[in-house]
Every structure is written in structure tokens, then in C-alpha cells.
Specification:
The complex is a heterodimer of chains A (669) and B (122). Chain A is mainly β. Chain A contains five helices and 33 strands. Chain B is globular, with a radius of gyration of 14 Å. Classes of the chains: A mainly beta (669), B mainly beta (122).
């Protein structure tokens, strides 16, 4: 089997001729790893160090990543978009585990069920590469859970933190305790967050923007024998009374239980370096709520609960064979979605319907990748992935619900394949060139296949699924140059996605709406194609040892086969930072500029134009060392000039928070 | 679920434009369900107090509606005459609750009953 796999790889990448022994530092240009809490920064990524500030929300960390923008429906659970692609077009996993939100209105992206406190790092994939845990068009995220340490210097260590933010009286309380023995390591952490309604720039109070949540996690690692480990992880995350000012409903609760058991073999010096097998299960329970809204906003009271259950496994093997660093992974999962709605009219009987009629996805995938360094100047990451995805309805009620909507089979099986080639060429000590060519595919989401009158707030239409949807496929290409000399670092990159069978909502004439006030009914369908192009320019300039200027600029633009501008495209955005380290006090000034977005198509996608905005944030931080313990104090002001603004991706353009004084204290021991 | 008795109306009498009296009834199935259901309509003429001859060959356009929401449903099949006064078609219920079936009934291309209704609750 191994021979066949290796043979196949040679087939994929026939240019492998000269090889070098030094295979350690192969740069992966298609991903970035954002370190949340870990001593060492991995040297194989376009690294980015995030300050160790665990009071920051996962969404804020994601929103700070180059090329990532957030869709806001409220002050909680923003949804990430990578270079204009989101939802089913990107793949989101927690430590390699498949997990899917339960809400039919996208109120609970997976990232809302995980806290920086749980994490070691966040890997963002800008396209197909060896770090991705699933098939997608637009890359995705993998949230790496913090691992307990064995045989650390201190047997016991821990952290406690307290944060307060003036805007919305937001508070965070968190803590962590780590035990590190010779054979057993345990880490336990928890956080509680609470916020009232925030104020937009200029002072307007945004009603229904409150939230509260807690998150707790435990991880234990046991050394079974030489190089062999057994690990258990469990995360529980529960949010309550969460307001969504951009939507017509709020959330009574959003709960997740995420667990896994894994067995690992790890040996840096062996031929097999890493072998990990994990089984996992997670359960999300979500309930929308309109009981707190004023009567005039609620034409009819409704209950809209939903659940998502996923179980699965993966087994991943990394080994060295001569000059190749190979990785193979087999993964599978089953996801079951159920969403229902009960409406209570003032006159008449309650009405009950399934909005996701018990939909199920079974997926089995295999991927293999190779990292090769050859000729001293060339390196290459290449690989492929094949998935078999089966979609169906698992209940009789579900099948009955759709019996009047679709002719033909409701269940379907599809085969998806991804292939990628990521070469990197070091022109000289200062200049590196890189490229990515990939063929990617994704299967339509269960909502896109089977959704039943799901209301989309952006265009105001009820959406019907379409079991006949074809897989979306894309040719992705990108190329970049990195210049690094002395105090200057410059990165330029251009990218393009050439998508076939692009999935979009198509107006269905003659269908009456279900949601009161909806403009019409749309059904998901395949447009023949869509094209997305963009680029980024990032530069860093070390003016003095302690004074660093940096700028990150991104632009994405997309059109469909009819020349209509695609939705959720962020306009040109520039993030400029000045970092200054003065007598161990770290200062940061960040200026953000977002250009106006006028490339919108209102009639087909429902988006409207968004004006430009500018923001200024300042931060200062100092770590005090007291008896070998540390107290980190961070103070900052976000939106210093109290600008009233909304980003293009914000649903209903509800203004984002105005000036906010942020104080975070973290005590480490 | 509390079922108000008034929400169900399985039959109705209408005077057609041809000055004849018609009884439009539904033959309910054992159990209605969400999704596509067979629908069986019976149309009789009221010929005196004791005589109700079945009427065949009429054309029916059926439109379901949820009165409390104001919406209908797609992909219904208009009932067609199958003899002995019966008309068979399909109705698509997208959810449970109160449904009203509207029937526009024509005889040789001219509308004789604009809106006969049947009320169903399940």
C-alpha cells in the first residue's frame, strides 16, 4: 500500500528529481498559523505572533488575520469569510474534528463555540494544502486545542484573568490550571463573558446586542510508553440570552459539547514521526427566541430550535522517506441536522414545520501530501484528496416534508477530488517566489440541498434547498513574492478562483413566501461559473530595534457568469500598525481603512453599497514580574475617534461599536 | 394541540352562475400529513331535498392557503374528474396547522363557482 501511495505521489509531481537532505524548513505559503498560547512559533508558516491576550474573543482574533473578514449579525458569533468565501465554501474544524453549526440563520458559526483559552493556535488555510482537514473551495480554519504538557519545569502552573470594557459593560473572567507530571499532564480552563447592549459611534445604543456565555475545557494526556500517548479532550460552551440586532430573532441558548479521544505515536527521529488516531463526537443545541422583542416587531411568536450532531474519526500518519516528508490521512464523519419551527398565530392553531428536514451527511475522505526540498532552491508541497459524500434524509417526517417539493431522489452520493501543487523557489537569500495551483471541489451544504423556507435577511427571500445541486468546483491559482532584507520585509500576492457550478439563490416565481414580510422565494441552483480575483500587499519596516511599522492591504473582487458582483466581497482594506517597545512597555497604534464597496448587485444578491470608513485603535501593555510570577496589564482604546461605521459584510448595516476602553489583567503563575 | 372545532369545514353549498345548487365536499383521508397528500373532492348537485346527483366533467383549480399566515404552497395538482362525482388531485402542505383549500370550479370553460372552500386542521 505504502509503495502505491508513494508511486502515486510521484505521478502527481513528476518533477521530483534532485533532492536534498535538509527537509526541515519547508515553507507552507498557503497557510498561516496564529499562535494563541505556545512558547515556540512554528517556522514553517508565514508566521504571525498574536499577543497572549486570552480575553480577546475568537472572532476578534480571526478578524485580525490577513484576508479574513467577519460577517456581523450582532456583537457575538460573527462569521468568518476568507477572501470573499464563507459558510460551505470554507472548511472549519476543531483539532481536525468536523463540526457544524445548528442554526438555520447562521447565528452560530463553529468559531463561536471555541475560546482562545482552549487553543494553542489557529491555522488559516488560504487554499488546498497539507494542513487542511477537509475538502473546500476557499480553504478554511483549523482550531488547534491546547495540549497538556508532560515533564514541564513547573509541575503546577496556571493563569487567572479579568477584563473590563466600557462599551456595553463587557466583562471577562477566566482561569486555567495545568498539571504536568512525568507521564500525566492535565489542563483545565474556563471563561465567562458577559456584555450589555453596546453603543455605536456617536452614542446610539444598539438594542438586542447583549450576550453571555461560559466555556470550560479539560484535556488530559497520558504517556502510555516510549513515544506513545493517550489523550482526551472535552470542551463545553454555553451561551445564553444573545441578542442579534440585525435579525428578527435573538437566541435563548446556544450550547456545544465537543469531545474526543486520541492515541498518538510521536518520534522526531524515527521514520514514522507522527501517527495519530482520533475518534470524536460533538453535539450542538441551539434555540432562537423572539420573546424579548417588543410586540410590534413580532408579527407572530415562533419557536425555532435546531440541533447538529457529528461523530467521526481520523487517522493521520506522517513519515519521512528519503527526502520526502509524507502525510496521509483517512477521515470520516456523520453529521445530522434537525431544525424545526412552531408558529403561534393569535387566531388559529399552532403551525409546525421542519426547516431542515432531518438531513444527514456521511463523508469518507483520504488525503495524502508530500513536502520535498530539492536543488537547494526549490521546495514543493503537493498532494491530493478524495472524498465520498453521501447526503440523505434520516427521518420519515423529513422525507414527507419534501415530498411535495422535489421530484426524483432526495439522497445523493458524490465523489470529490482535490489536487494541489505549491512550489516555492528561493531566488536568492532575500527573494522567494511561490505559486499555488489547485483543483478543488465542495459538496453543497445540507441547508443548500434540503433547506425548507430558510429566511435570508440580506436579500429578504425565503430559501428552498435543491437536492439536484451539482458540486461546486474550482481551479485556484495564486502567486507571490517575498522580499526580506535587513529591516524590510515585503510580501506581494495575487490570487484567482475560477469556479464552476457556483451555488446561488435563484428566484422561484409563483411560489408564495412563508416568512411574513419576505420578498419572495429563491431556490439554490448552480450558476455556470463565477470568478474571484484579488491580491494582498504586506510590508514590515523595522525603523529601530524597538519600532516596527507594518501594513497589510487586501483586495478581493468577484463576478458571476452574468457579470454580477458576488456577495460578501470585502472592498480594499488597509491595516497599518506601529509597534513601539519603550522600557518594556509595548505600544501599538493601529489604523484601519476600508474603502467603499460599490460593486454590489442588489437585484440578484440583495446587497447594498457600503461607504468607506476609517478607525484608530491604541494599545499599551506591560508585564510585571513579581516573585517569578507575572502580571500582564493591557489597556487600550478601540475606535478612539468614536467613528460610526458598518463594514460591508455587516447584515442590515447595523453600526459597529463606538469608542471602547479595554482593560485586561492576566496573572500567570 | 387544542383543536377548535370551528377550524374544520369539510363541505359547503354554493349556488352556481348556472343557478344550480352544488355541494362541494372533501373525502378526508385517514390522516393528513406534511408534504404531498392525495385529495379527493366530491361534487354533487342539490336537486330537491332528497336527490343529490353526482356531477362529473367539471374543471377545478385548487389553491391551498394558510389563513393565519396568508401564504399558500407550491406543486399542488388540481383535482380532475374520475367519475361518480369524484375529483382526484394532490395537495402539498408545507406545515401543520389551519389550511383552507380554495376551489374555482368551471363548466365548459365558464366559471360557475368562484370560490368554494374547505377548511382543514391537522
Amino acid at each position: 500500500m505504502l509503495r502505491i501511495i508513494i508511486y502515486l505521489l510521484f505521478f502527481i509531481a513528476p518533477i521530483i528529481t534532485i533532492a536534498q537532505k535538509d527537509s526541515q524548513e519547508i515553507r507552507n505559503v498557503m497557510m498561516k498559523e496564529i499562535i494563541i498560547q505556545n512558547e515556540k512559533v512554528p517556522n514553517n508558516s508565514k508566521e504571525k505572533k498574536q499577543p497572549k491576550n486570552l480575553q480577546t474573543s475568537t472572532e476578534q482574533v480571526l478578524g485580525g488575520i490577513d484576508g479574513v473578514n467577519m460577517i456581523r449579525r450582532g456583537n457575538f458569533a460573527q462569521e468568518p469569510v476568507i477572501r470573499g468565501l464563507n459558510a460551505g465554501q470554507i472548511n472549519v474544524t476543531i483539532d481536525g474534528m468536523a463540526i457544524f453549526g445548528a442554526c438555520t440563520d447562521k447565528m452560530d458559526p463553529v468559531s463561536s463555540y471555541i475560546e482562545p483559552n482552549n487553543l494553542q493556535s489557529i491555522v488559516v488555510n488560504y487554499g488546498a494544502n497539507d494542513m487542511a482537514f477537509g475538502t473546500s473551495i476557499g480553504g478554511g480554519f483549523n482550531f488547534k486545542i491546547k495540549q497538556p504538557k508532560l515533564a514541564a519545569k513547573e509541575t503546577w502552573s496556571g493563569m487567572a484573568g479579568l477584563g473590563y470594557e466600557t462599551n456595553g459593560n463587557a466583562m471577562q473572567t477566566l482561569g486555567a490550571i495545568n498539571y504536568s507530571g512525568e507521564r500525566l499532564g492535565i489542563t483545565v480552563n474556563g471563561i465567562f463573558r458577559q456584555a450589555e447592549n453596546y453603543r455605536a459611534g456617536g452614542g446610539e445604543k444598539i438594542s438586542f446586542s447583549q450576550y453571555q456565555k461560559w466555556n470550560g475545557s479539560i484535556a488530559a494526556k497520558y504517556k502510555v510508553g516510549e513515544h506513545r500517548f493517550f489523550q482526551v479532550n472535552y470542551i463545553q460552551d454555553e451561551g445564553y440570552d444573545i441578542g442579534y440586532p440585525a435579525l428578527t430573532m435573538d437566541v435563548a441558548f446556544a450550547k456545544a459539547k465537543i469531545g474526543s479521544v486520541s492515541y498518538m505515536y510521536h518520534n522526531n527521529h524515527g521514520a514514522i514521526q507522527h501517527w495519530e488516531t482520533k475518534i470524536f463526537s460533538n453535539y450542538i443545541n441551539h434555540a432562537m427566541d423572539d420573546t424579548r422583542r417588543p410586540k410590534e416587531q413580532v408579527p407572530m411568536h415562533m419557536d425555532m430550535p435546531g440541533t447538529s450532531r457529528t461523530s467521526g474519526f481520523y487517522s493521520e500518519l506522517q513519515w519521512e522517506n528519503g527526502d520526502h516528508q509524507l502525510k496521509a490521512r483517512l477521515n470520516g464523519f456523520q453529521n445530522k441536522l434537525h431544525a424545526e419551527m412552531t408558529m403561534y398565530p393569535d387566531n388559529g392553531a399552532p403551525m409546525y414545520m421542519l426547516t431542515i428536514p432531518d438531513a444527514q451527511r456521511d463523508l469518507l475522505g483520504f488525503d495524502i501530501s508530500d513536502k520535498i526540498k530539492f536543488g537547494g532552491k526549490w521546495s514543493l508541497i503537493t498532494g491530493g484528496r478524495i472524498d465520498v459524500a453521501h447526503s440523505s434524509l434520516f427521518s420519515d417526517d423529513g422525507r414527507k416534508t419534501l415530498s411535495g417539493m422535489h421530484n426524483g431522489k432526495l439522497s445523493k452520493t458524490g465523489i470529490l477530488y482535490n489536487l494541489y501543487l505549491n512550489p516555492v523557489y528561493d531566488l536568492n537569500d532575500h527573494v522567494t517566489l511561490y505559486a499555488n495551483v489547485a483543483h478543488t471541489m465542495r459538496v453543497a451544504t445540507l441547508q443548500e440541498l434540503y433547506g425548507f423556507y430558510l429566511f435570508n435577511r440580506t436579500d429578504g427571500y425565503d430559501y428552498l434547498g435543491n437536492p439536484a445541486l451539482k458540486n461546486e468546483r474550482s481551479w485556484n491559482a495564486s502567486a507571490g513574492i517575498i522580499y526580506n532584507k535587513g529591516s524590510v520585509k515585503l510580501e506581494l500576492e495575487g490570487f484567482g478562483y475560477f469556479i464552476k457550478n457556483y451555488i446561488a439563490g435563484i428566484h422561484k416565481r409563483g411560489y408564495s413566501v412563508m416568512t411574513i414580510g419576505a420578498l419572495g422565494v429563491k431556490q439554490y441552483g448552480n450558476l455556470s461559473s463565477a470568478t474571484l480575483v484579488g491580491g494582498s500587499v504586506n510590508a514590515q519596516w523595522k525603523l529601530l530595534t524597538d519600532l516596527v511599522l507594518s501594513t497589510n492591504n487586501t483586495y478581493t473582487s468577484g463576478t458571476d457568469d452574468q457579470g454580477r458582483s458576488l456577495p460578501v466581497m470585502s472592498p480594499f482594506k488597509s491595516v497599518n500598525q506601529l509597534n513601539y517597545n519603550f522600557k518594556q512597555v509595548v505600544f501599538n497604534v493601529t489604523g484601519i481603512y476600508s474603502a467603499a464597496q460599490n460593486k454590489v448587485n442588489t437585484s440578484f444578491y440583495g446587497e447594498t453599497k457600503t461607504p468607506a470608513y476609517g478607525l484608530l485603535n491604541i494599545r499599551a501593555g506591560k508585564t510585571f514580574h513579581i516573585n517569578k510570577k507575572q502580571l500582564a496589564v493591557n489597556i487600550g482604546i478601540d475606535n478612539l475617534l468614536d467613528a460610526r461605521y458598518a463594514d460591508h459584510l455587516d447584515i442590515m448595516k447595523i453600526p459597529r461599536p463606538g469608542r471602547n476602553v479595554v482593560t485586561h489583567l492576566t496573572w500567570s503563575f | 394541540m387544542q383543536v377548535p372545532a370551528s377550524s374544520t369545514k369539510l363541505t359547503g353549498t354554493y349556488t352556481g352562475t348556472d343557478a344550480k345548487r352544488y355541494v362541494v365536499s372533501i373525502v378526508p383521508p385517514v390522516k393528513w400529513q406534511v408534504g404531498l397528500n392525495d385529495v379527493d373532492i366530491l361534487i354533487n348537485q342539490m336537486d330537491g331535498m332528497m336527490n343529490f346527483p353526482a356531477v362529473d366533467g367539471l374543471t377545478i383549480v385548487m389553491t391551498p392557503e394558510m389563513p393565519s399566515m396568508g401564504h399558500g404552497s407550491p406543486n399542488n395538482v388540481d383535482p380532475v374528474s374520475v367519475g361518480k362525482g369524484h375529483y382526484k388531485g394532490k395537495v402539498n402542505y408545507t406545515m401543520t396547522g389551519d389550511w383552507r383549500l380554495h376551489f374555482k370550479i368551471s363548466k365548459s370553460e365558464s366559471v360557475i363557482i368562484e370560490d368554494a372552500t374547505i377548511d382543514i386542521l391537522f
